[in-house]
C-alpha cells in the first residue's frame, strides 16, 4: 500500500512537472480599436488556459504601430505572435526570412482552412510568413439614422452623394456632411474614382511605375476638389482646426453630422461603436454609369506571423491555431478583425449567429466587387506620404490639380524604382 | 585616498557611467557612423560617404523648410520664454500672501508641460470649438483657426512651450533672492527709481543665470517633438514640421536611418555653433562677481 502511494505521488508530481515544462511565456502584439483589444485579450486567455501558456498582450492604436514593430524587429525584441499589415510583408521579409516559416508547423496549424490564394498572399519567396486573418477592403458606410432623419436616401452613385450633401445642408445645416475624406481616406477616394475611370490600379506592377497619366490623376484630384466645393466633405483646413481627430473619435461622427465614410470593412465595429442608438449601414461601392470597373480596393487584411526569434515557436503555433481555427479562439475573437479568412472560423461564427449582419454585408460587398488587383506598394509609407503631402498642398490652394498630379506621379515613381 | 576607496567611488559611480556609455555615448557614436551609410534597419548598413550630407544640404527642400521653421521657433520661443519667466519671477519675489502657493502653482506646468497628456489637452483647448475660442467669442472676438491655418499653427505650438516657463522661473527666482539687499538700499538712498534699480542692479547680477537659462532653453527648443507630433503632426503644409519630426519620420516612417542620422548630426552642429556663439558673446554681457574682466 505504502509503495503504491509513493508510486502515485511520483507519477502525479511527474505529470505536473511535465505540464510546467511545456508551459511557455509568450507575447502577442496587435493594433486596433477597443472592441478588438477586448476580444483578443479574452481569446488569448482562453487559448492560453487551453494549452497552459501565458500570453502577454501588447496592443496599440494604428498610429505608430508600424514604427513600434519595426524598432522591435530591428532590435530583436518583437513579440512571439504579431499582427502584421499585409503591405508590410515586403518591408520586413522581402526574401521570406523576416518571420518564421509557418509551413514548418503544419502539424500544429491546420493550413487546410485557408484557400490557396490566402496562403499565397502570406507567402514571401516560398515561405509562409503570415496567415491571412481576413480579406478586407474599403467599403462605404452611412449613418442610416442620421440620413433618415434628414429625409435623405442612402446614396448609390456619386451624383446621389452630391445631391445628398445639398439636402443635408438645407435640412440639417451647413455643418452636415454625407462623407468624410481626409488624409488616407481622401487618397483612397481619389484612387477609387481614378480606378473607376481608367480600369487600372495606381501601381503598374510589371513596369514598376504609376499606371495613370497625369491627366487621369488630375481628373481624380478635381473630383476631390468638387467634393469639398459642394460641401460633401469637410475642407482639410476645417478638419485640422478640430485637432486632426480620428473620425471615430470625432463628436461630428458620433452625433451624425458627418453621416458617411469610406473605411476598411474590418473596422466596421470601430465606426459603429460610437454611434449610440444609430444604425451604421455598409453600402455598395459608389460609381457612375460610365465607370469601367467598380474599382474595389480589396486585399488580404492583416496576417498573423510568428517571430523567427521566438523561443518557443511551437507554443506560438498552438496559440495561433487556437485563435484562428479552434472554438475557444474563434468564439472569443468574433469579428473583431472582420469576417475570418479561416473556413472553420467563418462557418462557426455564421452557424452560431455570431456575426452581425452588417459585417457579413460589408464583407460581401468587398468579396463581390470588381476591380484590378491592388498592389501592396499602394500602401508603402513613402508612396502614401507623397500622395498625402501633395494633396494637402492642393487642398490649401497652393497648387493646381495638374501640378499635384505630376508631383504625385514623379514622387511615387521615384519610390517604385527601388523595387 | 587609498586604492580600495577609489574602487568604491568608481563602484558607486558605475550605474551612471554604464548608463552614459550604453545609452548616450554609444548611440551618439553609432549615429555618426550611420550618417555615412545607407541603412534601413533590416539590412546591413552600406557605406555611402558624404552622400547623405550632400543630398541634405543641396537637394532637400523639406530639410530647408524644416530648418527655417525650427530656427524661427527657437528664436521666438527662447527670448519670449526667458522674458516671461523673469517677469513672473520678479513678481513672485515680492513678499505676498500665499506666495508659496503661487510659486508652486506657476511651477506645476513645467512638470506636466512636455507630456503627451498635456499635448492632447492643448489639442482640445485650441480646437475650433475649444475653450480658447469660446472665451474669445465670449468677449466679442471671432474664433481663430489655431491648427488649420499655417500661420497660427506654429504660434499654438509656441504657446505650449511658453506655458512651461516654470523651471526657468525657479532658477531666476533663486538668483533674485541671492542678490545682496544692501545694494538696493544703496540705490534707494541715491534716488534710483524702480526701473533704474532693476536695470542697473538686478539685471547685471543675474546675467550668469540668464546665460544658463538661455543655453538650456535653446537646446531644449531645438529638440521639441511632442507638441507638434501630437497636436499638428507637423502640418498644415509642414508649418510646424520641426527638425526632430523630420528626423523621426526619416528614421521610422521611411526607415532611412542613415539619412535621419545625418539630419540629427546637422542639428547637433547647429546647436553646437549657436552655443559657442553664446559662450563667446557672454564675455561682453555676463557679469561674474569677482571676475577681473567684469
TrEMBL record, chain A:
Record flagged with keyword Thylakoid: no
Major subcellular location class: periplasm
Keywords linked to the UniProt accession: Periplasm, Signal
Family per record: Belongs to the bacterial solute-binding protein 1 family.
Origin superkingdom: Bacteria
Entries under InterPro entries matching the protein: Bact_solute-bd_prot1 (IPR050490), SBP (IPR006059)
Signal sequence annotation: 1-23
Name recorded for this polypeptide: ABC transporter substrate-binding protein
Automatic annotation (TrEMBL), chain B:
Residue stretches making up the ABC transmembrane type-1 domain: 67-278
Classification via PROSITE patterns: ABC_TM1
Alphabetic keyword roster: Cell membrane, Membrane, Transmembrane, Transmembrane helix, Transport
Pfam entry (one): BPD_transp_1
Membrane-protein topology: Multi-pass membrane protein
Record localization: Cell membrane
TM annotation in the entry: 7-34, 71-94, 106-126, 153-176, 197-219, 262-280
Main localization (coarse): membrane
Annotated InterPro entries: ABC_transporter_permease (IPR051393), MetI-like (IPR000515), MetI-like_sf (IPR035906)
Family label: Belongs to the binding-protein-dependent transport system permease family.
Protein name: Sugar ABC transporter permease
Source species of the chain: Rhizobium oryzicola
Lineage, highest ranks first: Bacteria, Pseudomonadati, Pseudomonadota, Alphaproteobacteria, Hyphomicrobiales
Amino acid at each position: 500500500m505504502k509503495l503504491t502511494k509513493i508510486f502515485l505521488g511520483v507519477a502525479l508530481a511527474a505529470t505536473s512537472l511535465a505540464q510546467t515544462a511545456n508551459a511557455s511565456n509568450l507575447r502577442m502584439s496587435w493594433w486596433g480599436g477597443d472592441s478588438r483589444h477586448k476580444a483578443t485579450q479574452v481569446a488569448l486567455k482562453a487559448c492560453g488556459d487551453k494549452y497552459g501558456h501565458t500570453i502577454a498582450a501588447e496592443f496599440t492604436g494604428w498610429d505608430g504601430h508600424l514604427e513600434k514593430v519595426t524598432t522591435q524587429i530591428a532590435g530583436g525584441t518583437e513579440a512571439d505572435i504579431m499582427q502584421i499589415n499585409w503591405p508590410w510583408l515586403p518591408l520586413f521579409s522581402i526574401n521570406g526570412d523576416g518571420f518564421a516559416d509557418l509551413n514548418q508547423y503544419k502539424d500544429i496549424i491546420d493550413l487546410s482552412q485557408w484557400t490557396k490564394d490566402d496562403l499565397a498572399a502570406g507567402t514571401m519567396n516560398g515561405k509562409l510568413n503570415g496567415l491571412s486573418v481576413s480579406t478586407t477592403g474599403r467599403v462605404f458606410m452611412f449613418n442610416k439614422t442620421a440620413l433618415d432623419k434628414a429625409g435623405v436616401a442612402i446614396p448609390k452613385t456619386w451624383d446621389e452623394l452630391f445631391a445628398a450633401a445639398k439636402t443635408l445642408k438645407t435640412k440639417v445645416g451647413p455643418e452636415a456632411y454625407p462623407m468624410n475624406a481626409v488624409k488616407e481616406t481622401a487618397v483612397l477616394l481619389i484612387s477609387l474614382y481614378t480606378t473607376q475611370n481608367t480600369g487600372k490600379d495606381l501601381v503598374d506592377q510589371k513596369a514598376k511605375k504609376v499606371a495613370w497619366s497625369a491627366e487621369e490623376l488630375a481628373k481624380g484630384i478635381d473630383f476631390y476638389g468638387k467634393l469639398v466645393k459642394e460641401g460633401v466633405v469637410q475642407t482639410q483646413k476645417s478638419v485640422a482646426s478640430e485637432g486632426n481627430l480620428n473620425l471615430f473619435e470625432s463628436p461630428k461622427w458620433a452625433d451624425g453630422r458627418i453621416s458617411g465614410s469610406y473605411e476598411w470593412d474590418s473596422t466596421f465595429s470601430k465606426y459603429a461603436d460610437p454611434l449610440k442608438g444609430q444604425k451604421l449601414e455598409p453600402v455598395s461601392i459608389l460609381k457612375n454609369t460610365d465607370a469601367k470597373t467598380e474599382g474595389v480596393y480589396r486585399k488580404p487584411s492583416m496576417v498573423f506571423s510568428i517571430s523567427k526569434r521566438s523561443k518557443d515557436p511551437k507554443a506560438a503555433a498552438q496559440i495561433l491555431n487556437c485563435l484562428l481555427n479552434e472554438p475557444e479562439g474563434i468564439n472569443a475573437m468574433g469579428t473583431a478583425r472582420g469576417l475570418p479568412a479561416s473556413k472553420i472560423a467563418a462557418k462557426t461564427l455564421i452557424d452560431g449567429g455570431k456575426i452581425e449582419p452588417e459585417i457579413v454585408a460589408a464583407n460581401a460587398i468587398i468579396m463581390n466587387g470588381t476591380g484590378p488587383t491592388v498592389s501592396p506598394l499602394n500602401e508603402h509609407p513613402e508612396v502614401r506620404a507623397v500622395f498625402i503631402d501633395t494633396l494637402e498642398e492642393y487642398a490649401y490652394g497652393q497648387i493646381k490639380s495638374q501640378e499635384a498630379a505630376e508631383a504625385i506621379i514623379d514622387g511615387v515613381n521615384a519610390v517604385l524604382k527601388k523595387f | 585616498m587609498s586604492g580600495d576607496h577609489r574602487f568604491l567611488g568608481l563602484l558607486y559611480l558605475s550605474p551612471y557611467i554604464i548608463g552614459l556609455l550604453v545609452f548616450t555615448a554609444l548611440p551618439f557614436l553609432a549615429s555618426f557612423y550611420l550618417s555615412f551609410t545607407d541603412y534601413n534597419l533590416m539590412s546591413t548598413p552600406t557605406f555611402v560617404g558624404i552622400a547623405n550630407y550632400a543630398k541634405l544640404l543641396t537637394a532637400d527642400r523639406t530639410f530647408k523648410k524644416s530648418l527655417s521653421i525650427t530656427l524661427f521657433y527657437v528664436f521666438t520661443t527662447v527670448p519670449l520664454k526667458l522674458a516671461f519667466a523673469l517677469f513672473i519671477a520678479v513678481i513672485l519675489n515680492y513678499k505676498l500672501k500665499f506666495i508659496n502657493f503661487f510659486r508652486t502653482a506657476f511651477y506645476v506646468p513645467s512638470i506636466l508641460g512636455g507630456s503627451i497628456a498635456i499635448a492632447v489637452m492643448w489639442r482640445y483647448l485650441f480646437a475650433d470649438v475649444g475653450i480658447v475660442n469660446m472665451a474669445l467669442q465670449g468677449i466679442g472676438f471671432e474664433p481663430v483657426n489655431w491648427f488649420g491655418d499655417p500661420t497660427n499653427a506654429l504660434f499654438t505650438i509656441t504657446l505650449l512651450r511658453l506655458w512651461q516657463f516654470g523651471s526657468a522661473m525657479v532658477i531666476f527666482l533663486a538668483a533674485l533672492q541671492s542678490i545682496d539687499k544692501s545694494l538696493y538700499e544703496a540705490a534707494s538712498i541715491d534716488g534710483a527709481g524702480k526701473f533704474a534699480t532693476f536695470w542697473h542692479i538686478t539685471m547685471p547680477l543675474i546675467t550668469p543665470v540668464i546665460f544658463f537659462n538661455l543655453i538650456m532653453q535653446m537646446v531644449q527648443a531645438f529638440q521639441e517633438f511632442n507638441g507638434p507630433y501630437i497636436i499638428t503632426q507637423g502640418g498644415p503644409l509642414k508649418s510646424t514640421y520641426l527638425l526632430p519630426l523630420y528626423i523621426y519620420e526619416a528614421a521610422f516612417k521611411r526607415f532611412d536611418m542613415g539619412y535621419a542620422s545625418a539630419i540629427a548630426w546637422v542639428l547637433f552642429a547647429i546647436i553646437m555653433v549657436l552655443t559657442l556663439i553664446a559662450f563667446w558673446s557672454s564675455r561682453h554681457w555676463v557679469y561674474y562677481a569677482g571676475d577681473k574682466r567684469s
